[in-house]
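Lab channel / #folding
Pinned by the channel admin:
"Please post every new chain as: sequence first, then the structure tokens as a reply. Keep commentary short and put observations after the output so the thread stays searchable."

First post following the new format, from NK:
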Amino acid sequence: MTHSGDNQRVLLIGTRGSTLASTQAGHVRDGVLDSGARAELHFVHTPGDASQKAQTPVANIGVGVFTETLRTALANGECDIAVHSFKDLPTAPDTRFRTVVPERVDPREVLISVDNQSLQELPSGAKVGTSAPRRVSQLKAVRSDLEILPLRGNVGTRMSRVGQDLDAVILARAGLERIGELDRAAESIDPQLIKPAPAQGALSVEVRADDEAAWNAVKHLDHVPSHARAVAERAVLSTLEAGCTAPVAAYSTLEEDSEGQHTLTLTGGAYALDGSRRVEETITVPIDLRERWHSDAESAGRSVGRALLTAGAADIMA
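Reply from TO:
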């Protein structure tokens, strides 16, 4: 899409209107401007925004409710670049688009609580807000005495309920970090306790596959280690054939040795919603970050996913 001005095209960056989404898109816009291209934000209203206002449970509104409208706008030329939270995208590849993954922020969960109490310090029967089945299932396993209540809305809306009708809420640390509210967190939760969603903390910046100008404006934003880790974690999810709202978690780390060789350690887990059962598998493999399609990372994720299925993940999630 060409936006008027002088001869240089202005790239329109599609985003939802929430503070978090527009802040994320703003970082991408700044990166595009750094490349010498021109860019501005373009706001797209999604059905997911309406469902948030209505407090519809996230499990009832389907996979990709926030991302599909943005992708349609991108495919139709309403915008030229779309910025997604990578964890919200369907796992099936979409050949209409090319993607880059900017440097990822900390993928852990955070707890926002009355009097800054940690998860283990919350009193028995404390009311904790979260709607993600993955969080609910792991939380019940760690603290079966807590009362877990549904929670929707943007980051600010969710945090505002602490001290009102809730004692605490669990959110992605990445959201708070990006909007400058990290000081609100009582703790960043150890991934050994509650594992994050696959690709949590990573953005996916998409352009149309045939749009070379937009691709040239974003390709320098790709952070290869972040991209590889996100691919590995999402391959766990796709192998389990589970959607982004399923009780599945994945967490990875990358190490570099003195010779510059990289090793990926990836843990995936599937959880029973009532907290009664879980299965987790970990793999450590060498990985070649020079390889453009991240097939090493994807292969590692598929291995973990298959191991989870062998260990009974499908029954546990059902």
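NK: The chain has ten helices and 13 strands.
TO: also worth noting, The two ends are 45 Å apart (CA to CA).
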